[in-house]
Amino acid sequence: MDNKTKKTVYLDYAATSPMYPEAAAEMYRMLKDEYGNPSAVYDSATHAREAINEARRTIAKTLNTEMDTIFFTSGGTESDNWALIGTAEAALRAGKGNHIVTSSIEHPAVLKTCRYLEQRGFRITYLPVDKEGFIDLAQLKRAIDSETVLVSIMAANNEIGTIEPIREAAELAHQKGSLFHTDAVQAYLHIPIDVKQDGIDMLSASGHKFGGPKGTGFLYIRRNLEIDSLIHGGSQERNHRAGTENTAGITAMAKAAAIAHSRMDEDERRISSLKSYMLGKLMRLPEIPELNGISIELNGTPDVIKRLPGNLNICFRGINGESILILLDMAGIAASAGSACSSGATDPSYVLTGIGLSKKDAESSVRFTLGRDTTEEDINYTLKHVEDILKRLKK
User: Fold this and answer.
1) Within 13 Å of residue 230, how many CA atoms lie on the same side as its CB?
2) Residue 353 class from Cβ within 10 Å (0-12 exposed, 13-18 middle, 19+ buried)?
3) What are the CA-CA distances from residue 190 to residues 261, 361, 383 (Å)?
4) pLDDT, position 35
5) Is the N end or the C end of the chain the one with fewer CB atoms within 10 Å?
6) How far apart are CA 291 and CA 289, in angstroms?
7) pLDDT, tens digit, for every residue of 58-73?
8) Which residues belong to the active site?
């Protein structure tokens, strides 16, 4: 392609999002001017400590909770590990039980932590999902027994965008005396979440998914809930999570959270509209004479209410997805085959095979995720190149 006509289109917001300029400015300001250690007693340390507390208040407001329920971490993976291992260890010490229920399409941060706990002697039940990616609530109810200490179900899937019925799942867990955790890394600040109304005991989130910096995140832990620490050392985070606080990252994440929360409804409507426009155009590509015979299908639920606003996971049946991605990249378009944390894996997506796709169809799938800066011009540019790429690969 002529570089003069090449533009850059970013359609991988599920992998990461660009920082809000205001968040980047806040991070720089803290690095430059407020470098004191929050645990010290002098004036600059006090400023840093106050900034962290204000960030905690900001995050708490977005979830309708109290500031002392927010614990800052290095990201979603640490938060997931802490929620699962911390709960399991506390339950083991108290003799409460050794069973955890989760779904088969959770992020690797949950699934691999569960496998680690299996090696420690815990029983794990991995619930299957239907063809749209939803857990079966009746099956969940049957899976919870007297030894179940935790149910962990993601708020929304990172590959297919399916929004799980977490409020109902939490209610079922509580009926049996179990705790409920949700990995909300993909959902937080993209769809409304109220930890009190939804009955959530623990929630994981990651800053770089909503315009904050990488290496930041938090774990919400309901008041009066005691789980074991994952990282030991100093007395930071009220003796729950040791290590000098990442003041600049925390305050930048909170700045991004405040902005994303204020524009969430507006962004959701605009992004959903663009997604529907793109999906409609993609589904009509087989009507083009040169593309007759190509089958294009949406992976996951077609219900826009139960799918993340910006998620499109498309199966271009019979066409190699990796080839599509390479050619899209040559045109300046960033998309993906699925989870960024599984990049480089040789096996097809376990999420796509988990909803019933064959290995070949899973390998023919491409994930487009739209975000706050996506425009109709970006979508039209992408659609034109997808059409050209399919014609080329069909030959």
Assistant:
1) 18
2) middle
3) 8, 28, 24
4) 82
5) C
6) 5
7) 999 999 999 999 999 9
8) 341
Give yes or no for residue 4 having a pLDDT over 60.
no
Element (H, E) at 38: none
Q: H helices within the chain, ranges in order?
A: 21-33, 43-63, 76-94, 108-119, 137-143, 166-175, 236-239, 247-262, 264-283, 321-330, 350-354, 359-362, 376-394
Phi, psi of 71 (to 5 degrees): -120, 120
| Contact in structure between 200 and 223 (CB atoms under 8 Å) | no
Q: What angle do CA 3, 6, 9 make, to 5 degrees?
A: 145
Query: 289 is written with which tokens?
Result: 């004479």
Instruction: Give the tokens for residue 80.
Output: 């997931």
Token reading at 390: 């399919």
Q: How far apart are alpha carbons 57 and 254 in whole angstroms?
A: 9
> In the predicted model, is pLDDT for residue 2 greater than 80?
no
pTM of the model: 0.95
**Pair 152, 182: CB distance under 8 Å:** yes
Distance CA 59, CA 39 (A): 21
- Name residue, tokens 């840093």: 48
Q: Mind listing the pLDDT tens digit for each residue in 89-140?
A: 999 999 999 999 999 999 999 999 999 999 999 999 999 999 999 999 999 9
